[in-house]
Specification:
mainly alpha, two-stranded antiparallel sheet, two-stranded antiparallel ribbon, globular
Length: 526
Amino acid sequence: MSSKFKIPHTFTIVFCIVIACAVLTWFVPAGEYARDAAGNVVEGSYHQVDSNPQTWQIFTAFFAGFQKTANIIVFILMIGGAFWILNCTEAVSKGIYSFLNFTQKLQKFGPLQKIGVNNLVIILIMLLFSAFGAIFGMSEETLAFIAIFVPLAISMGYDSITGVLMCYVAAHVGFAGALFNPFTIGIAQGLSGLQPFSGLGYRLLCWVLLTTLAIIFTLWYANRVKKHPEKSFMHDADGFWREKVMQQTDDQRQKSTLATWIVFGVVSVLLIFLAIRYPHTDITIGGRQSQLLLFPIVAPLFILWGFFSARKSVHSYIMTLLFLTIVMLIVGVLGYGWYVGEIAALFFAMGLAAGFAFNTRFDQIIRQFLDGCKDMLTAALVVGIAGGIIIVLQEGHIVDTLLYGSSTAVAHSGKEGALGGMYLIQNLLNLIIPSGSAKAALTIPMMAEFSDLIGISRQTNVLAFQFGDGFTNMITPTSGVLIGVLGIARIPYAKWAKFILPFIIFLIIVGFLLLLPTIYIPLTGF
């Protein structure tokens, strides 16, 4: 019998965490804060309540966890189904093959040869996703891109972890940088009584530094894996992705059929309708609203590009549909407040359009969609189970106790110590409350008053919350988005935690060093 340790399934790890949280409810005193009508904590209102130790409730917590994360679960299933339809057309794999051939040709140019085209691709993708995270708080949306960037990374000679770093980690580093993130900075500054999105200059510096560090880390790991594939954390486990990539060995494409042109006509008419119905789109970034002619621009561009791509091949046209979907996602999120429901519907529509354009029978498209849902079922189930963790802590009435005990412990430790304590609290709380908005409502009102008492600016308090909320998002098992991303990428949580933990610790240290100047140097907005 082999004595080699086998990494437990993510399901097993999360289940053990739920049990551990239930055990805590037997030993940690139960307590609560009073809250006002808006749900904000009332300062000095902490009081003990009757304890409610959790036993058999861990099983009902799973049910409640599924209810709590239902939107993420359904999102994962719909995305999985839509991309399965897309993958059955082989358009993405052929598109990746064409892209790699194109990059190889670019290697001939002197400057690009020195930088490395693959390195440049990684840098540009990470800059884009980091900007998305910083500007409009991209998080759940990254789930839709994992199925694109993981096979791309494998095709470039890297591994699935590199694909996750390129979009998910980049977006969450940007989320921590939070230039205009309405879900963290917007809410936290509002609760602190600060001018919305004030202190932008220093946050911009922080975002540039954090994004640069993330890119350097990704390039180091990616090139290490390319030179020594055996050093990849996923060397053996990436067999699924490697086999999938190996199935595509050429760029031979099928000509468009009548069905392709019918889909092109329907989508074009729909975009023309949107251009007439919504000629102006109000884009809100950082509290500033701009009115742009987005649909009147997108419609003719798609019609022109779609026409030539459909003439080339059905695969080229389906890739055009994918790019249109990504553009519509950005427009919908920034201009119309779309969330996972609308985004799931958008990708579902893309999957159907891709299937019809490929001249697939409707019954076969539905079967492909169900196969994709089945493939994502384990990831979706783990997300629901992870949602039970916070349910157990809340039902045991110990979340507020943990917050109260932590804030009391750092009350008399000087500015630096208190700042470090506040920052540590935000990082630890994020492990059990991954929602930035919920944690802001819970902690900011109390921490704002606390920062006044010890002589630290409220802006610094908000920055500590911002960093504390952002970094540990990438490792907390209570995050439905993280568990969903790992499920789609087929990366076991234990392997991911082992890989990313040193980088998270490094980011936390950098975050604290970036907080220190705010208590020593006069900064605009601080």
